[in-house]
């Protein structure tokens, strides 16, 4: 059988749902999107003051947006239902149809947004190569097109912090500065997909405002490691957010009593940011354990995503997933590799248990 190129499978998080008859999931390393709101978070949500968000008078949404704008060092912020909608609205606001966006070849906007940029934004995405989801200033420079009537107008440079398929890798601040400097030279705007931005900030010990200082727009997802049930916040200049509101309305992203959900996000900012360090420590412990298994090649995790290659064991990713599922353990398959993700619902005590289960499943 011909081996499919890795990107053909880069978005197959299969199977997302345990098959009928599978035991309940005990250890969920599938994704940090699967965290459940804690009882304290639910309490905060129950107590939320609410208004009509679309009408501009939900006090809890205002509180969340004010906090996020301050945290990111931007003038304004906008609450949205999902991170995908943040990317779509940011691109619609920065670009015209036919413009080109430069992004890494493993980026979420290329692989995991259902072709939305062909279907809705009308931009073309130029995939940049580079190790572990990162590219350099030279890579960006090499991709600059001549300003002729033949070439698509280049408008936006997009960076994912952390780089998900790259391995949850943290972009070093210096490298962010170097690539955004090229964009500025060219008169392009810059956008950060900050789905896991707080993981990067905690791992690097750098404040969010400093990390995103050179970006015109940035968003943070509350449904990944932060553990809220819904919501993402897009930040930028007052003018940018003002224009973005038109697209929020057009796409149906304007909400009503969204304060209930925003309260969960505020709770996560207060209680779930510093603890991301525990997820990173658990990921490192998991990587150390997996490295002891013969035939397994483990990438050293920067944050909460542990990618490992099991080709040397002769067991396929799908077969491993099936064997683990039979023991109530979930992992995902991404780009021909296995991904195990640590988060709020994964304790340190679960790590050795997961390692033994994976060792047995690979030996079986
Ligand atoms: C999850 C994710 C998104 C999309 O966020 P949703 O809230 O699931 O729509 C975008 N980019 C990256 C890197 C992600 O991991």
From TrEMBL:
Region (Disordered) location: 1-38
Superkingdom of origin: Bacteria
Chain ranges of the Aromatic amino acid beta-eliminating lyase/threonine aldolase domain: 29-311
InterPro entries named among the record's database cross-references: ArAA_b-elim_lyase/Thr_aldolase, Low_specificity_L-TA-like, PyrdxlP-dep_Trfase, PyrdxlP-dep_Trfase_major, PyrdxlP-dep_Trfase_small
Keywords: Pyridoxal phosphate
Cofactor (UniProt): pyridoxal 5'-phosphate
Keyword Secreted annotated: no
UniProt cross-references to NCBIfam families, sorted A to Z: GntG_guanitoxin
Oligomer and partners: Homotetramer.
Family in the record: Belongs to the threonine aldolase family.
Protein name as catalogued: Threonine aldolase family protein
Record organism: Sediminicoccus rosea
């Amino acid at each position: 059988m011909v081996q499919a190129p890795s990107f053909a499978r880069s978005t197959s998080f299969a199977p997302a749902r345990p098959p009928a008859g599978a035991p309940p999931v005990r250890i969920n390393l599938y994704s940090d999107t699967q965290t459940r709101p804690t009882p304290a978070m639910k309490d905060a949500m129950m107590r939320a003051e609410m208004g009509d968000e679309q009408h501009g008078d939900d006090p809890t949404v205002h509180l969340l947006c004010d906090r996020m704008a301050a945290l990111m060092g931007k003038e304004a912020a906008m609450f949205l239902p999902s991170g995908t909608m943040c990317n779509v609205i940011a691109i619609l606001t920065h670009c015209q149809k036919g413009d080109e966006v430069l992004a890494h070849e493993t980026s979420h906007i290329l692989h995991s947004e259902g072709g939305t940029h062909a279907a809705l934004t009308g931009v073309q995405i130029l995939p940049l190569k580079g190790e572990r989801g990162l590219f350099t200033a030279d890579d960006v420079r090499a991709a600059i097109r001549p300003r002729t009537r033949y070439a698509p107008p280049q408008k936006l440079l997009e960076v994912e912090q952390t780089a998900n398929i790259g391995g949850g890798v943290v972009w070093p601040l210096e490298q962010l500065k170097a690539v955004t400097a090229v964009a500025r030279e060219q008169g392009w705007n810059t956008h950060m997909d900050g789905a896991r931005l707080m993981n990067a900030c905690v791992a690097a010990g750098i404040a969010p405002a400093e990390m995103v200082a050179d970006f015109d727009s940035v968003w943070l997802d509350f449904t990944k490691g932060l553990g809220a049930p819904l919501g993402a916040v897009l930040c930028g200049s007052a003018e940018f957010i003002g224009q973005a509101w038109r697209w929020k309305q057009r796409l149906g992203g304007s909400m009503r009593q969204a304060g209930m959900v925003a309260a969960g996000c505020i709770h996560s900012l207060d209680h779930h940011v510093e603890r991301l360090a525990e997820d990173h420590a658990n990921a490192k412990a998991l990587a150390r354990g997996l490295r002891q298994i013969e035939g397994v090649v483990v990438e050293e995790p920067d944050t909460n995503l542990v990618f490992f290659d099991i080709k040397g064991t002769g067991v396929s990713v799908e077969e491993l997933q099936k064997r683990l599922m039979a023991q109530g353990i979930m992992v995902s398959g991404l780009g021909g590799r296995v991904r195990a993700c640590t988060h709020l619902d994964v304790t340190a005590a679960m790590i050795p248990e997961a390692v033994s289960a994976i060792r047995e499943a690979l030996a079986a």
